[in-house]
Amino acid sequence: MTIEDGVYRIKNQQSGTYFDNSELNREKIHGWDSRPGSGNQEWEVRQQDDGSYILRNAASRRYAHASDGRDGTKVKAEDTEREASHWAIRDAGDNSYNIYLKETNGVINLDEGRVENGTSINIRNCTEDRQQKWKFDKVRELGEGRQQPLPQPGGRGGGGGGGGDAGRYRGACDPGRYWIRNAHSGTALDLSGSNPNDGAAIIGYQVTQGNNQQWDLESGVQGYRVRNIATGTYLSVRLDDKLQDGVLLTGNKNNPSEWDVRGDQNGYTLILAGTNFALDLAQGSAQDGAKICIWTSHGKNNQKWLLVRA
User: Fold this and answer.
1) Does the pLDDT value for residue 126 go beyond 80?
2) How many CA atoms lie within 13 A of 70 on its CB side?
3) Sign (positive or negative) of CA dihedral 222, 149, 19, 140
4) How far does CA 190 lie from the centroid of its chain?
5) How far apart are the two ends of the chain, measured CA to CA in Å?
6) Contact call for residues 41 and 57 (beta carbons, < 8 A)
7) Confidence band for 283, pLDDT divided at 50, 70 and 90
């Protein structure tokens, strides 16, 4: 079966990890756990006139490249289409494909089929091992869906609502507009029903890409203020709530909490500024309507979030 042009996530049959372009080192392509919605795991697959394909990462706009077909040659991400390798994608017979470097017998190989994040991806002579087989899961058509990053908004440095002078804080990611998805469940941070009232519920919900699942990170003094696009209300702990495990997050207009964003593109932790409480998907639930609360920071995946440019 022929692969049609489109944007795909490419999954290794041996490990279940994905073909991922590192955000920390943009030349590096490695195996990584599933991060639904992350552009680092989305690849534009485009067939050329000679029947071969080029692969371009949706986030970095870099191209998959191997310098030759010899065993051990690293698969890297290069800047320009001129440096893009041409790949022959051939049906492996079990709903998966071998990805050959054109005019060689070398295929894209996940090193020893390991499941660890960061496992290197290289070229090996084709042996039909499962670590050399990849499943192509189509995300969307070429040219659809993902928008370019918006200009970075400024927030106020002190209390109060949005707008005003830019704050001083810069976290582990840049300010801007994001979809925020839980690293454990893949569900989105959602302002329930686009409710504009103070105290509106913030929940986990399947990804819809609606405005109530888009958030502006605005620089404050000790952290980012997280403002919902649909309503302009902020992800907040209410002022009259005692800070303790399990306090629910709500949308509020005039008392935005600030969040210290730590980590990297493989999972960010949002810490309520000045505390040790993290933004937490209660019990890691993937159910629609799951509670979003604060909980003492412990580093597990239900407290890690994928910030995907909207």
Assistant:
1) yes
2) 3
3) positive
4) 16
5) 33
6) no
7) very high
At a CB cut-off of 8 Å and minimum separation 6, what does 82 contact? none
* Both tokens assigned to 147: 């928008």
Give 124-130 contacts, CB < 8 A, sequence gap 24+. Answer: 124/71, 124/72, 125/71, 126/98, 126/100, 128/92, 128/98, 129/14, 130/12, 130/13, 130/14
- CA nearest to 236, candidates 286, 292, 195, 282: 292
Which pair of structure tokens corresponds to residue 165? Answer: 């002078």
Burial of 102 from C-beta contacts in 10 A (0-12 / 13-18 / 19+): middle
Q: Which DSSP category does 98 fall into?
A: E
- Tokens, residue 31: 């195996």
Q: Render pLDDT for 247-279 as a digit per residue (tens, 0 to 9).
A: 999 999 888 999 999 988 889 999 999 899 999
